[in-house]
Every structure is written in structure tokens, then in C-alpha cells.
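Thread amino acids onto this structure.
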């Protein structure tokens, strides 16, 4: 931040004395190493806080940890307890809750983003997850598409909560992927389990692409 102030002052001519340094102020930033107190330098008309993100009080890693906790189903209280153990500083419900406002928009943007044919293999599977309700645990399948890039890295392309793993549900999911840009160009194979609904839906959307069955299901 001191270097940013120096660079900014160097862009001004010598007569601009009204822009001279104007001391500093203290600011706290919560990082994965714990709470850090910073001394932020400033001038009368410039302060280099964009380096920290405007008004941010937590490092991006902390926000991602909070978000991950909510995705895993932890309550606000549990997230605070976990962060206390990791950071040595309590994170109140009021502090954690803003991180909980973003997932809805983030997830919606994730499901709507354009897709590219950047994969050599596509892995499709239905993962059954249990959700607690007043009547007990309710199990619902989540349809998942995972792509393997040409450099070998894996990427979750998309997922969708479904009523079942029927051919109609899979066709709806795959058609949405196709419309967003995942047309199958460049795919060497599609890997699937033994689900008959998925196997029936594949030729409708991704006709002509070789299908590799999971050996465990084939052996069964």
C-alpha cells in the first residue's frame, strides 16, 4: 500500500502540495492466519484500500470457508465454531450471515453461465443426498456432470436436484447443458454408471459419442 501511494504521488507535478501524505489509520483484516491489524497509509485525496478490496474486513479465503460451511449444511453457529478453532477469533452470526446472502446469486449464475467444449471426457452420475425434514430424512438424487479437460484436470460442470433418475429427468438436464454450449464437440467419451434412465437419454442429446460404462456396474 505504501508503494501504491508512492506511485500515485509520482504521477503528480511538484506543485500539487495539497495531495501530500496525510498519515495513516489502523484497520483490521481477518485472514487464514488470524486477525491482522494493518496501518493503511493515505494522502489527502488518495487511499490505497483497493489493494484490500473496498470495505473488506475478511480475506477472500475466509469468505470461501464460510460459503463452504453453508454448502455442507452447517448452521451459522457451527460455522462460527469452526472458524474460532481455525482462526482463534470468534465470528459472530451477524458476521457470518452476509456470507450466506451470496450463495443464492452465486449458484444461479453458476447454473446460467455459458459452457464451452473444453473437455475430452464427460462423467455423468446421480448422487443421492439426504435432507432432514420434519418427517425424517428425505432422499433426492442430484444429477451431476463432471468434465475432464485435456490437461487432465477435473471440473464440476453443473448439477441439478431431480425428482428421480428417469430418462426424462436426465434428458432435461443434458438438454440444458447442450443449449448453454456443451454440444459435445471434441468429446472422446462419456462415462456413465448403470442407470437405465441416463443410458436412454444420452442418444437423444449426445448422439454418436462413445459411452464407457463403469466396470463395477457392468460386472454386476
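Threaded sequence (220 positions):
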Amino acid at each position: 500500500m505504501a508503494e501504491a501511494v508512492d506511485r500515485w504521488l509520482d504521477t503528480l507535478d511538484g506543485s500539487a502540495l495539497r495531495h501530500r501524505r496525510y498519515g495513516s489509520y489502523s484497520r483490521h483484516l481477518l485472514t487464514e492466519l488470524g486477525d491482522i491489524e494493518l496501518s493503511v497509509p493515505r494522502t489527502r485525496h488518495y487511499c490505497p484500500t483497493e489493494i484490500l478490496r473496498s470495505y473488506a474486513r475478511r480475506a477472500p479465503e475466509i469468505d470461501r470457508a464460510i460459503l463452504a460451511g453453508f454448502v455442507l449444511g452447517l448452521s451459522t453457529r457451527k460455522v462460527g465454531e469452526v472458524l474460532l478453532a481455525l482462526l482463534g477469533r470468534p465470528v459472530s452470526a451477524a458476521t457470518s450471515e452476509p456470507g450466506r446472502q451470496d450463495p443464492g446469486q452465486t449458484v444461479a449464475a453458476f447454473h446460467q453461465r455459458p459452457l464451452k467444449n473444453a473437455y475430452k471426457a464427460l462423467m455423468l452420475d446421480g448422487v443421492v443426498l439426504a435432507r432432514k425434514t420434519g418427517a425424517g430424512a428425505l432422499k433426492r438424487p442430484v444429477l451431476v456432470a463432471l468434465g475432464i479437460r485435456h490437461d487432465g484436470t477435473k471440473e464440476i460442470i453443473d448439477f441439478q436436484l431431480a425428482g428421480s433418475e428417469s430418462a426424462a429427468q436426465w434428458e432435461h438436464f443434458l438438454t440444458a447443458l447442450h443449449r448453454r454450449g456443451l454440444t459435445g464437440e471434441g468429446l472422446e467419451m462419456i462415462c456413465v454408471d448403470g442407470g437405465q434412465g441416463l443410458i436412454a437419454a444420452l442418444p437423444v442429446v449426445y448422439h454418436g459419442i462413445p459411452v464407457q460404462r463403469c466396470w463395477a456396474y457392468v460386472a454386476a
